[in-house]
Amino acid sequence: MSDKAFEINSSKEWTDDAWYMDQNKRNPIKNDGWLIINKGKASGTLLGANLCTFNLLQGTEYLPDLNNSILFIEDDEESKSVNFDRDLQSLIHQPSFKGVKGIVIGRFQKASKMTNEKLIKIIKTKAELKGIPVIANVDFGHTSPIITFPIGGEISIDTKKKSIVINKH
Q1: What is the DSSP string of 137-151?
Q2: Per-residue pLDDT reduced to its tens digit, 71-103
Q3: 69-74 and 41-50: which strand pairing?
Q4: CB 3.0 to 4.6 Å from 140: which of 83, 106, 134, 164, for a disulfide?
Q5: What is the DSSP string of 58-103?
């Protein structure tokens, strides 16, 4: 543990298997790196969660203010493209969403059948996301490796440099 800034890098490979069952029967998949959907750079407060679970906070006092945030969102194998699209749009309709500075999306599990093409189409059809950087296929969520990020920490993203830096936490 440290208070120093650190950079998040793309892993060389990832897995979508039951790692806890048998470490000798892992099936690594070559990682093609992050998917840059919208270019740009931004800084803000790191907020995030499983998108479906995060949306359960809507209409309650527990939904955080999204102003000046970089959202880290992910979903599990049950999230098909239509569900992700709907859940993302629901979050976009929140009053403070207009203050979101960027979005980082965790890698989808194979069972979700989410493809890069489907994800790009979902993001590009959201007028509210035009002009903010969106990076996908990042190592968090329900695949391995899984980065740990400090909710409430200060973060910078830059798609040109393919950089995600946690500045302070």
Answers
A1: EEEEESSBS-----T
A2: 999 998 888 899 999 999 999 999 999 999 999
A3: parallel
A4: 106
A5: TTSTTSPP-TTEEEEEE--TT--HHHHHHHHHHHHTSGGGGGEEEE
